[in-house]
Design goal:
The model has no long low-confidence stretch (mean pLDDT about 95). The chain starts with a strand and ends with a strand. The strands form two sheets. Strands 2, 4, 5, 6, 9, 10 and 11 form a seven-stranded mixed β-sheet that branches. Strands 1-3-8-7 form a four-stranded antiparallel β-sheet, with no helix packed on it. The protein has no helices and eleven strands. By secondary structure, it is mainly β. It has strands at about 1-5, 10-15, 20-25, 35-40, 45-50, 60, 70-75, 80-85, 90-100, 110, 115-120.
Length: about 120
């Protein structure tokens, strides 16, 4: 089992930045890929970014490309999502997830955090 706890969410004005963190505990010896997903009010949860255990491969959704960056520090068992140039449409609950497959598909991730709210005001 892996437990994930997100932090770093909050209220920010459009154009601002936030950095989300996701701390993993439990079975962290497994070399899991990590992903970030988000769910806006009234919408389905969607993929944001993913990164392999080694950080050799990573990608972000087109909707956030050039603004969001995913990274990880395996020594700290933590993955980050740096969010710049935030827009009101980025408002959502952001979730991190861990799984054996590097993927943008939610079902590939068996472990999920509880989410952290990001609100971007215009």
């Amino acid at each position: 089992q892996v437990q994930l706890v997100e932090s770093g969410g909050g209220l920010v004005q459009a154009g601002g930045s936030l950095r989300l963190s996701c701390a993993a505990s439990g079975r962290t010896s497994s070399r899991y890929a990590m992903g970030w997903f988000r769910q806006a009010p009234g919408k389905e949860r969607e993929f944001v970014a993913a990164i392999t255990w080694s950080s050799a491969s990573l990608y972000v959704a087109d909707s956030v490309k050039g603004r969001f960056t995913i990274s990880r520090d395996n020594a700290k068992n933590t993955v980050y999502l740096q969010m710049n140039s935030l827009k009101p449409e980025d408002t959502a609950v952001y979730y991190c997830a861990a799984g054996p497959q590097y993927s943008g598909i939610q079902v590939e991730y068996p472990y999920w955090g509880q989410g952290t709210q990001v609100t971007v005001s215009s």
